[in-house]
Amino acid sequence: MKKNIALLFLISGILLVSASMVIAGANPGTGIKATSHDLSSATGRGAAWDAGTEADPTLDRICIYCHAPHHAIKSADAATAGLTYFPLWNHDLTNLTYSLYTDNTGDVPTNISHQLNATLTQPGSISKLCLSCHDGSVAVSSYGNFNAGIAGSKHTGSVTTTGTRFGIGVSGDLSNHHPIGFDYAAVAAIDHEIRDTGSNLLGNNPSSLTVGDLLYGGKVECASCHDVHNTKNTGTKFTWVADTNSNLCLSCHAK
User: DSSP readout, 143-161?
Assistant: First the structure.
């Protein structure tokens, strides 16, 4: 009986430690392992996203879906896709043209919404990298060998994010999502409820990041709200700060 009780406690302890390891990996600021961006088999997602390579199907990797040390996208291919930022990029690229969020211009002091609409552009490079998985036009497992000549290194999987809770910009529709690709300073200059770029994220981020630190070419992009590698953020779902009491929103919006 005593042995059975001891064994039960041992098993319970192992389960608790295992569970805490998984939770720890998913906690804000603890790195990419065990997060939604970890597509390795260790998370149970590997089979769905074709983890491994044709040469070594048991190779269980995390970074490969987006980055590769060799044979990554070339500058010429990036330019064709309209990218100016492509950090050793290894995933097939979306080629959608997006319908963007717009607001009406009526009954708004000094035409604030008009100012937003006037500065909107197509998503910038860093947002296009995110959208290459999230808009559902490219399979998550379509990665590797942008340039011909490396046999057996290219994956062309069929799994996309279309129709799931991870879908953003599906079919090129960004019209009901927070606007990206707009000039932050241009809007802040006319809207007294937008914080200036020196705002310290309400002091809620230990890295003391300012709004300006999270702009790309002066524009709001996906990574202005999300830390995709889960390294310096304090909020879940990769958000730079937790949205408790709407702190994420209030980082930029002085309401």
Answer: BS-SSS--TT---------
Neighbouring CB atoms inside 10 A of 235's CB total: 20
Q: Are 159 and 92 in contact (CB under 8 A)?
A: no
Position 209: which residue type? Answer: L
> What number of residues does the chain have?
255
Residue (of 16, 15, 14, 36) closest to 25 by Cα position: 36
Q: How far apart are CA 170 and CA 185, in angstroms?
A: 28
Strand, coil or helix: what is 239?
strand
Alpha carbon distances (Å) from 77 to 56, 73, 93: 27, 6, 10
**Per-residue model confidence as pLDDT tens digits over 223-233:** 999 999 999 99
CA distance 104 to 27: 39
Q: The whole model's pTM is what?
A: 0.83
Contact residues for 229 (Cβ-Cβ < 8 A; gap 6+):
31, 32, 37
* Separation between Cα atoms, residue 115 and residue 108, nearest integer Å: 11
Question: H/E element holding 249?
Answer: helix 247-250
- Quickly state the pLDDT bin for 157 (edges 50, 70, 90): low
What are the two backbone dihedrals, phi and then psi, of residue 113, each rounded to the nearest 5 degrees? -65, -35
Q: How many angstroms separate the CA atoms of 49 and 55, rounded?
A: 16
What residues contact residue 167 under an 8 Å CB cut-off, 6+ apart? Answer: 134, 135, 136, 161
Q: Is 187 helix (H, G, I), strand (E, B) or coil?
A: helix
Q: How confident is the model at residue 15 (pLDDT cuts 50, 70, 90)?
A: very low
